[in-house]
């Protein structure tokens, strides 16, 4: 039996606590997970079971939300981050990483953080969650995947202006993205021979160079090199024909060249169930594909679908282990 999933609390003033509560209510003992956070932040109508070891999670989850207590300084106000909570949020993430790296947790699922709140309250030195996790793990390069039952997509370049994509799309960046994606599909998704579709950068994958030469001069040589190493790579493909039903049936993941090229298809196909997965870490990390939603926090109206899917995917990846199907 795999160890339970650890769920870090994220920003307490956001929707994380109520999503954890809703996820427990939906999953109960079918998918045991433990929340790392302050039990006082859990909605009052949800029963809580305080645990001091994750081995107690499965028994506790049958009747209550298991919580590994981490006391936070200062009061909670829904919708307004408390600067006194910032260091606690950071420490909970580090604690979750320790648990999964030690084998006490099978995977880490992270509730959303509020980056500005962490910077203001604790001088958080990282651009976001992913970079902090990479630093804790001691790795230099990680890759973002958005996954749902309908589609898995990986953007090669992420949060940069469209005008900078061409310069940022170097052979080394694309090579690393493809190799990390390929390895993760084997290790974490149990696929013995992953099939990866690779989008071109330009319309019609450059149409023979008449609409840009990046597809010919940057993307195609990397694909040729990695195919020689045994990777099953299709492309560069015209992105406008990659995401219909028949096309998606021919590959296991799509690697795209920039943020919107990857995220528009998955958010159109399966907006509520998309999950953020960080590839390239020495452990499994998933997260719901949304932010802290401070504007609706504490109102009980947040949709828990993405959190539930993030926990389910974390468990599925942990069970896939290192033995390909």
TrEMBL record:
Enzyme Commission number, as recorded: 1.1.1.262
Pfam families assigned to the protein according to its UniProt record, in alphabetical order: PdxA (PF04166)
Residue positions binding a divalent metal cation: 159, 204, 259
The protein's annotated pathway: Cofactor biosynthesis; pyridoxine 5'-phosphate biosynthesis; pyridoxine 5'-phosphate from D-erythrose 4-phosphate: step 4/5
An annotated GO cellular component: cytoplasm
GO terms of molecular function: 4-hydroxythreonine-4-phosphate dehydrogenase activity; cobalt ion binding; magnesium ion binding; NAD binding; zinc ion binding
Cofactor: record remark: Binds 1 divalent metal cation per subunit. Can use ions such as Zn(2+), Mg(2+) or Co(2+).
Catalytic activity: 4-(phosphooxy)-L-threonine + NAD(+) = 3-amino-2-oxopropyl phosphate + CO2 + NADH
SUPFAM superfamilies: Isocitrate/Isopropylmalate dehydrogenase-like
Keywords linked to the UniProt accession: Cobalt, Cytoplasm, Magnesium, Metal-binding, NAD, NADP, Oxidoreductase, Pyridoxine biosynthesis, Zinc
Compartment(s): Cytoplasm
Residues holding substrate: 129-130, 267, 276, 285
Gene3D superfamilies xref list: Isopropylmalate Dehydrogenase
Entry cofactors: Zn(2+); Mg(2+); Co(2+)
InterPro entries: PdxA, PdxA_fam
Function of the protein: Catalyzes the NAD(P)-dependent oxidation of 4-(phosphooxy)-L-threonine (HTP) into 2-amino-3-oxo-4-(phosphooxy)butyric acid which spontaneously decarboxylates to form 3-amino-2-oxopropyl phosphate (AHAP).
Membership in a protein family: Belongs to the PdxA family.
Note, other: The active site is located at the dimer interface.
Oligomeric and partner information: Homodimer.
Name of this chain's protein: 4-hydroxythreonine-4-phosphate dehydrogenase
Organism for this UniProt entry: Roseovarius gahaiensis
Gene behind the chain: pdxA
């Amino acid at each position: 039996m795999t160890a339970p999933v650890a769920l870090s609390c994220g920003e307490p003033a956001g929707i994380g606590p109520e999503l954890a509560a809703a996820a427990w209510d939906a999953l109960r003992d079918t998918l045991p997970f433990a929340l790392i956070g302050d039990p006082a932040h859990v909605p009052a109508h949800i029963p809580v079971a305080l645990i001091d070891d994750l081995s107690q999670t499965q028994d506790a989850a049958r009747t209550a939300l298991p919580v590994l207590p981490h006391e936070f300084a200062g009061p909670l106000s829904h919708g307004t981050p408390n600067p006194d909570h910032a260091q606690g949020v950071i420490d909970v993430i580090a604690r979750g990483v320790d648990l999964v790296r030690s084998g006490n947790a099978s995977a880490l699922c992270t509730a959303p953080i509020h980056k500005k709140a962490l910077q203001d309250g604790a001088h958080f030195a990282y651009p976001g969650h992913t970079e902090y996790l990479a630093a804790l793990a001691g790795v230099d390069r990680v890759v973002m995947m958005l996954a749902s039952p309908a589609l898995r997509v990986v953007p090669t370049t992420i949060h940069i202006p469209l005008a900078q994509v061409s310069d940022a799309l170097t052979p080394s960046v694309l090579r690393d993205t493809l190799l990390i994606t390929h390895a993760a599909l084997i290790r974490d998704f149990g696929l013995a021979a992953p099939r990866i579709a690779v989008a071109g950068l330009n319309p019609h994958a450059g149409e023979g160079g008449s609409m840009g030469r990046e597809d010919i001069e940057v993307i195609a040589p990397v694909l040729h090199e990695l195919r020689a190493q045994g990777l099953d790579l299709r492309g560069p493909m015209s992105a406008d024909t990659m995401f219909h039903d028949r096309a998606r049936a021919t590959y296991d993941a799509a690697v795209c060249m920039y943020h919107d090229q990857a995220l528009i298809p998955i958010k159109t196909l399966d907006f509520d169930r998309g999950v953020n997965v960080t590839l390239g870490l020495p452990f499994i990390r998933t997260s719901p594909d949304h932010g802290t939603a401070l504007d609706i926090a504490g109102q009980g109206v947040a949709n828990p679908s993405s959190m539930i899917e993030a926990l389910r995917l974390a468990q599925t990846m942990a069970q896939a282990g290192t033995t390909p199907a």
